[in-house]
Design a protein that fits this description.
globular
Length: 434
Amino acid sequence: MSRVLVQAEESVLSGVRATSDWSLKAVLRGRPIETWALGLAFCAVPISIAVCEFFLFLALAARIVRCVRGRARVRFPRIFLFWLAWAGLEVLSWAISPEHRSGWSEIRHLLLLASVFFVLPALSKDSDRQLVWRGLFLTSTLGALFLLGDFAARVFSYRSLLGMGDEASLYLRTGGLLNNWMVFGTVEILVVAGFLSFWSLYPEERRRWWPVGVIHGLAILFSLTRMAWITCFILLAVELAWRRSKWFWVLPLVPLGLYFSAPSAVRVRVNESFRPDFYSNAERVQMWRVGWKMIEERPLTGVGPGRVEALYRSYLAAGEPVPAYHGHLHNNAIQLAAEFGIPTLVAAMLTLGVLFFDLVKASRAAISREARFVCRAGLLGLFGFVMSGFFDYTYGHSLGLILLGFVVLSPLLSGSESASTADSKFGNQTANGS
């Protein structure tokens, strides 16, 4: 195990330094502040929300200054107009809600996405996006290593409790550096989408990067997060089918092999998933039922953002058990409709549909291998995020939304690289003229 860990770290570092084009000095030379600050913000997603948001704010401030000085133009992809309608309906629901303070976290998510929309053109060059993805592979691997270490420490600490029933597996669940396993799962799914695309389109680099794949596979397995298990398995199946690989037909044997070879904690977690009476499964069914009641009662405006937890008990029958945590409904679609109303859900579905077709269009138009890579990563990432939303409220995680913005929106900027170059020239001329 230790040998694999060392090889993982060395492979990522050597991958970043593979050519002189990827040296830090070459990357920073001539790049404006918002470019490298935004890149660092995305790379910090698997490690720390505080670091991520600090660099995102720095990139936002620098971009605003450049736009005010006329050294850059404000540009948005077509999908921004559809997202703006979606966001407007959410803001309207928040405005008429009786509790504005409860919905601030949802409005904060909209502000984060708006910031990503505004700043992302700073990464319009294929080389910049490529480097950010390599940085993400590095930082997410460090996060995965920390999760594995935390899992091992928990096994040692709670070894006396692990044989006391099925619920004992709860003591082993960890989100690593991100603390929450659902946040880790959301971020990891997006990283896996990028890594699968990288593995497919850069076969000459597989020898250097395979330890990274092993580390992430182990981290996903030992996170004991079913959302991550199912979604990453589906992403792997989609990627193999996309490549028309013969390994696709062997894929069904992988879960069986992992089940019989994995530690007992993994097998217990799998067994729990097939028990309707297990508390986690029963709570999910109850949450979905409560969500439907909220939608039926207020189909147009919802109960208001952030109010699910406060109103949850009022939708339960007398004597019905209350989950220890009921702040969300473990499903993106039900949560959106319950909080904001059915019109907001329809706007969200329309936005995701248009985004999918725009990514397909960008993928077909991609010429360079770098452009094809970011487009394929965007399509897989969008699919993975939507799939994971059937099991958890992934739309409620700031880090997941920030990384999702990079994964699915950056391919739509491929055609604006020339415009970015023109902006740079215009900025130089303005500086010289002043």
